[in-house]
Amino acid sequence: MDVLAIPADRHKGWYLSLMAPNTKGSTFAWLDPSRLYCNSQALADCVKDLLSPFHNDTIDLVAGIDAMGFILGVSVATTLGKGFLAVRKAGHLCVATQNQNYTDYTGREKTLEVRLDVLKPGVRVLLVDQWIETGGTMKAAIQLVERLGATVVGVAAVAIENTEGGKWIKKNYKFSHCIPEELQSQIDRKYLDSFKSFNS
Question: Which residues are registered as beta bridge partners of 155?
Answer without folding.
Answer: 127, 175
